[in-house]
Structure to design on (673 residues):
């Protein structure tokens, strides 16, 4: 859990990312997709924050901005990393925009990303050892023997035992769950303090999914890692995250501690999302979500609430006011809605 | 709601179906001795993890197996007619006309260079359901409305459709020739929950309205629980439990069904511990002897390792397990 007294590990303020829509060769783009629009949140050390929403809501873009795979159009990200174990000098408070050149490599020791598809994120020609040892080589950590030890150690940690049986396998010799374990090992081998996990279990079967979920939780506790856990699945977020932020078309519309959000959703979009989740419980009857239409692309959206077109509660005020600011309706429960 | 008359002959009867794929590792037993019935107007779910054989069964029913697939035994009786010995020519009459399939990847099922409506019109004309183009177009408009698409969208191309709209168009296409059985293979897996919810309601509505029979294949037990009357649980090519959906999910008899349920995270009710099933599903080129689930099963004994269990029948449901759960007092035996 985050310690409210101390400075957060990652502080995001007014983060914005716009992608230009090509207008033609040599022509200046005039339209933009507002993928992430004025997003702010805090992530504490060892905390797991879920970023939940439908495809196209901007959650993956936020993740990529946080590990500097993308540059923001506006806003700030401030990191406060603990002193790294080996070398580097990114301790203390540092702005994302100031991390450049050689510092970017030091930054990668602290911030890593795990991708959705274990079939796509790995080079099929390289062995498990090659894949996991690469970050160590890039960072210049250890010699060949030392790296082999470190890779074996991390393989044991992610449950691929005996490590010797997996070191020299190639991706096609692994199951989906095993591949995702390798991806986790690769992200954790250099001891990051912050990991963006982008739907790490959505491609997996139920039985391997729970294994990966509990592994990630266990490792976070043991190694003190903070997660930004990106998922479309609220049920998975319930198990993986201390807090959940719900995104809709580039905006965070609601954020609260996990159980509070599930029990007491205040934003009409969060309610719709929750009521759309099917349940195997034969006793549970659920109401259909009462929103209409489809998710659109936020191309030069009007200033009003992003959810206005689909909202069952929309009023004249919503039509004529800018997108509502986030308000703390209950302790640590933030909602951006005029009618909530 | 149309009747689900239990006493009438089932529309589809699958008897002792076995199927293998020839691979470099040798034959891979993808489906083994699977039997089930599908009542008229009924929907049957097939659940299990990837590689359990559920999609193979669907492809086999449609006789759309890849070249290395071999049907080694079994009958597929559609209205009493066995489809297995039919030639490709004869099969063409049944496929889409009598039995239609909704594929997982809707994007690949639509031709990108033709207008969506035209593709459905062609399917209708090819099967002679409507003789005039005007009649066919009218039928497509009706189908579009049925699945919640504006008939004006007939003039659009697939790339102009969102994922949910494309999946609806594919359902409309499957319904085009008024089939008596529709097979839906993970039709909502790529969709977001809100779109999925709407699509499931529409699919269910259409199925009821036309009193069509449906086989619904999915790995998501939440989805299957909501759209099906009966459910079959598959593991490693075997059907291990079959019964009314509410009964099976209310009190699973097979330990694998129970494991599937306890590893399913839920947003409702108290947060229960998720259980992790140890190990991995078996390699079907070299499956374990006896019950294929025994290496991962907490209840496995000597006999489980030696022989595949006989069916334990309880009312309208059964399981293939030596040690079925909720055995106390032999409920409903």
């Amino acid at each position: 859990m985050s310690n409210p007294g101390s400075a957060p590990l990652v502080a995001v303020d007014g983060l914005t990312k716009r992608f230009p829509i090509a207008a033609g060769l040599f022509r200046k783009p005039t339209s933009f997709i507002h993928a992430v629009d004025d997003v702010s949140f805090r992530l504490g050390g060892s905390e797991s924050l879920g970023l939940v929403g439908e495809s196209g809501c901007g959650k993956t873009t936020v993740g990529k901005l946080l590990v500097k795979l993308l540059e923001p159009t506006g806003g700030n990200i401030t990191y406060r990393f603990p002193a790294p174990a080996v070398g580097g000098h990114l301790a203390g408070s540092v702005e994302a925009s100031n991390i450049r050149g050689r510092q970017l490599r030091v930054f990668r020791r602290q911030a890593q990303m795990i991708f959705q598809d274990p079939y796509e994120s790995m080079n099929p020609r390289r062995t498990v050892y090659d894949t996991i040892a690469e970050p160590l080589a890039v960072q210049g950590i250890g010699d060949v023997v030392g790296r082999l030890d470190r890779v074996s150690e991390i393989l044991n940690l992610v449950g691929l035992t005996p490590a010797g049986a997996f070191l020299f396998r190639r991706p096609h010799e692994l199951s989906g769950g095993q591949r995702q374990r390798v991806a986790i090992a690769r992200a954790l081998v250099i001891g990051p303090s912050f990991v963006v996990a982008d739907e790490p279990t959505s491609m997996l079967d139920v039985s391997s999914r729970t294994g990966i979920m509990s592994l990630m939780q266990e490792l976070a506790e043991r190694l003190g890692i903070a997660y930004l856990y990106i998922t479309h699945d609220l049920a998975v977020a319930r198990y993986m995250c201390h807090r959940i932020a719900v995104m809709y078309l580039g905006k965070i519309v609601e954020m609260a501690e996990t159980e509070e959000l599930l029990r007491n959703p205040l934003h009409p979009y969060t309610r719709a999302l929750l009521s759309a989740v099917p349940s195997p419980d034969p006793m549970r009857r659920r109401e259909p979500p009462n929103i209409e239409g489809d998710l659109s692309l936020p191309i030069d959206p009007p200033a009003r609430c992003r959810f206005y077109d689909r909202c069952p509660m929309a009023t004249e005020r919503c039509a004529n006011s800018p997108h509502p600011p986030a308000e703390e309706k209950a302790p640590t429960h933030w909602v951006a809605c005029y009618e909530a | 709601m149309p009747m689900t008359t239990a006493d009438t002959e089932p529309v589809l009867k699958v008897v002792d179906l076995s199927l293998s794929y020839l691979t470099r590792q040798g034959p891979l037993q993808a489906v083994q001795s699977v039997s089930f019935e599908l009542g008229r107007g009924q929907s049957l779910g097939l659940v299990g993890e990837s590689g359990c054989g559920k999609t193979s069964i669907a492809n086999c029913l449609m006789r759309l197996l890849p070249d290395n697939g071999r049907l080694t035994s079994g009958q597929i009786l559609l209205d009493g007619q066995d489809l297995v010995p039919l030639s490709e020519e004869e099969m063409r009459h049944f496929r889409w006309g009598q039995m239609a399939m909704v594929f997982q990847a809707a994007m690949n099922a639509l031709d990108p260079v033709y207008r969506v409506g035209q593709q459905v019109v062609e399917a209708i004309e090819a099967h002679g359901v409507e003789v005039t183009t005007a009649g066919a177009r009218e039928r497509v408009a009706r189908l579009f409305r049925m699945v919640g698409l504006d008939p004006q969208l007939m003039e659009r191309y697939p790339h102009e459709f969102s994922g949910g709209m494309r999946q609806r168009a594919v359902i409309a296409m499957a319904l085009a020739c008024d089939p008596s059985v529709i097979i839906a293979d993970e039709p909502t897996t790529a969709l977001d929950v809100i779109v999925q919810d709407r699509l499931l309601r529409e699919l269910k509505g259409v199925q009821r309205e036309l009193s069509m029979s449906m086989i619904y294949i999915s790995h998501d037990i939440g989805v299957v629980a909501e759209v099906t009357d009966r459910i079959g649980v598959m593991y490693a090519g075997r059907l291990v439990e079959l019964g009314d959906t509410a009964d099976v999910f209310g009190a699973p008899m097979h330990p694998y069904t129970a494991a599937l349920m306890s590893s399913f995270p839920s947003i409702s009710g108290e947060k229960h511990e998720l259980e992790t099933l140890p190990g991995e599903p078996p390699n079907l080129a070299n499956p374990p002897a006896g019950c294929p689930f025994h290496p991962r099963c907490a209840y496995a004994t000597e006999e489980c390792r030696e022989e595949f269990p006989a069916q334990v029948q309880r009312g309208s449901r059964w399981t293939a397990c030596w040690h079925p759960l909720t055995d106390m007092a032999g409920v409903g035996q």
